[in-house]
Design brief:
With about 325 residues, this protein is of the alpha/beta class. It has two domains: about 25-120 and about 235-330, Rossmann fold (3-Layer(aba) Sandwich), CATH 3.40.50.150; about 125-230, DNA polymerase, domain 1, CATH 1.10.150.170. The chain contains 14 helices and seven strands. Strands 3-2-1-4-5-7-6 form a seven-stranded mixed beta sheet, sandwiched between helices. Helix 8 packs across helix 9, helix 8 (about 165-175) packs across helix 11 and helix 9 crosses helix 10.
């Protein structure tokens, strides 16, 4: 579920100590070439951006909603002063951000979806139950170019939502089967005092849920749900993919790495539909009268089955285990 990873078997280095998941697979799929223009929509630790810049004499525009990631990227930008361009904002606003910068088309886009290791490993950001910190979970805490920083935090959600609203979020975004029990425990606890730290929330959840057979912390699914809600991550994926499709040149590719089923489901559905591979509707469904045939698809699906990280990578970096890579290519415009 995290987007900036600690290790894999490529031997490449990134800003700091992290390297991204499935780096070799990403490069092989994106196929960077000299003179092309690419977008790294989730800059994070800069691992993908660095690899693309090293692979070809190209230009990379990099977006991140986290102002600390953009500041950290200054080191890499100084190494590629004419080829790397950093933009503070959301990848779901890529069309607005790039248009404002004078960029109207791209030869490739990579999105590494999820919270970065830089964020999750910093207790002050409030993403993890492994260390106590403020219950924040915002990926971007200040205003962005073309938008504004979110004022919504995880603390706001757990302290203000009605019990049934909270249960719905935990069930829908965290796939937490005991969502009602967890929501009830949260409401009871906040009546005594506001829930303001990750440690207290994790303790409340742990007190009402038995240990997970998989070994995951009982709060894992609830923390995921709150994070997705605070950052509107699923909506961001939908907006980003739609805009990516508009920005690609013929032959350009979109490569997406996701880390849990909710993300991957959106990516798979979008790529299947734009490549003309969506299942045909029933002959009684009026949508069948307007559906494009496969021959008129605008994209080619490069990954009929999602790519997965290799054994060496998952052994070195357990955070990579759930990664899925999917990709599409823009077809040439018909004459």
């Amino acid at each position: 579920m995290t987007s900036s990873k600690v290790a894999n078997d490529t031997g490449s280095k990134t800003i700091g100590t992290h390297i991204p998941v499935m780096l070799a697979e990403m490069l092989a799929t994106l196929r960077p070439r000299d003179g092309a223009v690419y977008l790294d929509g989730t800059f994070g630790g800069g691992g993908y951006t660095r690899a693309i810049l090293e692979r070809a004499k190209c230009h990379v525009w990099a977006i991140d909603r986290d102002e600390t990631a953009i500041a950290r990227g200054g080191v890499l930008a100084a190494q590629y002063p004419d080829r790397l361009h950093l933009l503070h904002g959301r990848f779901g606003d890529m069309l607005t951000l790039l248009t404002a910068a004078g960029v109207h088309a791209l030869d490739g886009i990579v999105l590494d979806i999820g919270v970065s290791s830089f964020q999750i490993d910093d207790p002050a950001r409030g993403f993890s139950f492994m260390a106590d910190g403020p219950l924040d979970m915002r990926m971007g805490r200040h205003g962005t170019v073309g938008g504004t920083g979110s004022e919504l935090t995880a603390a706001t959600l757990v302290n203000t939502l009605l019990e049934h609203e909270l249960a719905n979020i935990l069930f829908q975004l965290g796939e937490e089967r005991a969502s009602r029990r967890v929501a009830r425990a949260i409401v009871v606890a906040r009546a005594e005092a506001p829930i303001e730290t990750t440690g207290r929330l994790a303790g409340i959840i742990r007190a009402v849920l038995p240990p997970d057979r998989s070994g995951h912390h009982p709060a894992t699914r609830s923390f995921q749900a709150l994070r997705l809600k605070v950052n509107d991550e699923l909506g961001e994926i939908e907006r980003g993919l739609a805009q990516a499709a508009l920005l690609l040149n013929p032959g350009g590719r979109v490569v997406v790495i996701s880390f849990h089923s909710l993300e991957d489901r959106i990516v798979k559905r979008f790529m299947t539909e734009v490549s003309g591979r969506a299942p045909a509707p029933s002959r009684h469904d009026p949508r069948g009268l307007t559906r494009d045939s496969a021959g008129s698809a605008r994209f080619r699906l490069l990954t009929p089955k999602a790519l997965r990280p290799g054994t060496a990578e998952t052994s070195a970096n357990p955070r990579a285990r759930s990664a899925r890579l999917r990709a599409i290519e823009r077809l040439e415009v018909a004459a």
